[in-house]
Amino acid sequence: MRYQALGKMAAVVRCFRVPATGLRSPRTGRIGSQVVIPYRCDQYDLMYLRPMGDLGQLLFMEWDSHDKDSIRRALEYSNVVINLIGKEWETRNIAQLSREVGVEKLIHISHLNADVKSPSKYLRNKAIGERVVREEFPDAIILKPSEMFGREDRFFNHYANMHWFGGVPLIAFGRKTVKQPIYVSDVAKAIISAIKDPDAKGKTYTLTGPHRYLLYDLVQYLYAVLHRVYLPYPLPRPMYHLIARFFEMNPFEPWTTRDKIDRFHTTDTRFPNLPGLEDLGVVPTPVELKAIEVLRRHRKYLWLEADLDEAKPARTVNNM
């Protein structure tokens, strides 16, 4: 299928992981965009992306995120830049060079719980990233999604994989943590809407799902969808961190880290004065509608094709 070009050229910086998966889908191509994808990995890791756009729609460019000339080459022909990088120096360089080369819109993906005082280094970096983006590119659009779920995510899949360990460790049983996860495709739709919306410049949007859940109840629902026994147990943060240090010694990607523990046990912040997903014309997708998409592969064969309706929806705490 071919799509009519609309004159938009977008550079998607750090095109990996879940949010980028939504951007790389044909959804971006349907609005007629050319997409520049700077990469730092082996080019063969990107081969599966090539069929996702029409001829000439996806442009791959090897780059060094610490080299300003390399960044400039990746951005100079784009009128929209979508930044998924959270580290301070890389974000500052991207924002500064986006302004210098005349980029019309810079969309910076942060996090709902970004806070310089957070125990999570990831969330601290996201908070610093927001600040430097505003300094270097005042008209930037900042999107603050909560934890995202979708195929190949690192939130629902993380807890689903815990069945291999026989139980699910949660700080304070997960009863002191409130999460409001968002479906990854909703984030991709919000980015597309922000590109099209002329009034979005300079605004910060919070992107969350429609319901809030205690972490305990949310993980319980995930295991109900899996048709697996849910065995939660409380684990003090220092002990959890000690176990995570063991996993961090893995030369490959660790199963968990101290930073991930702190991030997943941070209650999602409310920002009543900031515009949200609905202000971008996107209706948030309930967890109960899409959880099976993520979790089916974790089921036993007996329940592989079982209906989702058999799982009781998680209890919501929208007043917390």
UniProtKB/TrEMBL annotation:
GO terms for cellular component: mitochondrion. GO terms for molecular function: protein-containing complex binding. Coiled coil: none annotated. One of its GO terms (biological process) is ubiquinone biosynthetic process. InterPro entries: ComplexI_NDUFA9_subunit, NAD(P)-bd_dom_sf. Belongs to the complex I NDUFA9 subunit family. Complex I is composed of 45 different subunits. This a component of the hydrophobic protein fraction. Interacts with BLOC1S1. Interacts with SLC2A4. Interacts with CLOCK. Interacts with RAB5IF. This is NADH dehydrogenase [ubiquinone] 1 alpha subcomplex subunit 9, mitochondrial. The lineage of its organism: Eukaryota, Metazoa, Chordata, Craniata, Vertebrata.
